[in-house]
Amino acid sequence: MEVKHLNFSYDGAVKAADDVSFSVEQGSYTTIVGHNGSGKSTLAKLISGLLEKESGSITISGLELCEQNIRKIRSLIGIVFQNPDNQFIGSSVSDDIAFGLENHCVPQPEMDGIIAEYAGKVKMLDYLASEPTHLSGGQKQRVAIAGVLAMHPAILIFDEATSMLDPQGKDEIKKVIRGLHQESGLTILSITHDIDEVSASDYVIAMNDGRIALEGTPQEFFRDAERLKRIKLDIPFSLKMEDALAKKGIRFKERCLSTEGLVDALCRYDSNM
Prior knowledge:
By secondary structure, the chain is of the alpha/beta class. The protein has ten helices and ten strands. α3 crosses α4, α4 packs across α5 and α5 packs parallel to α6.
């Protein structure tokens, strides 16, 4: 994906995308982070064609987003939105995953195999007969992901996919996203305000007032905590703990961008004492 000099405003007044340019490499995991109103969700809608840009260009898999290519581009993109309850169509998990396949006239015997395959990928195979209303928030979001994956998208976009979930549900979906990226090499673009999700990605883009304020690898991104504060972002809990430990004389060779990394560093530190 390549975005060049993208501009968009609401009612011609509020600039939600102000000369935005960035690229997403095939097979990468990119997060776009920012506070509420920073413009990150507007980007997701522009990329998927739900909003029409004022100027600039969006190119996906070599196709420029325009009226002539919109259907083809939408077939390349899968989107998981923030509210899982708004995404359900069927009366069961199986029916919901099947919805897109039915619209593409996939034969029933083939469809059954696809449903089982992608329900298995998100660990929902035992729930195919369940009603969506009986599922937890994290389970509902996993079903939504399975339904999108069944359509074989080239790019999977998560638009605040964990923002309405409880801590357990958030952890579930983060693990699913990381697993999908590691196992399938799927191109992932995650729009989020969850700073802890950033550490798992390959590249980070921070939005502020419709512009790109900061970008780089996670290690580069968290290097300047003061700059992050200026754009209303925080650092992960693991880095706060690392800084607190450093004041007590416990220092590690590399920055710990995740809780798992911090625990591992502490175990290695303890074993070396």
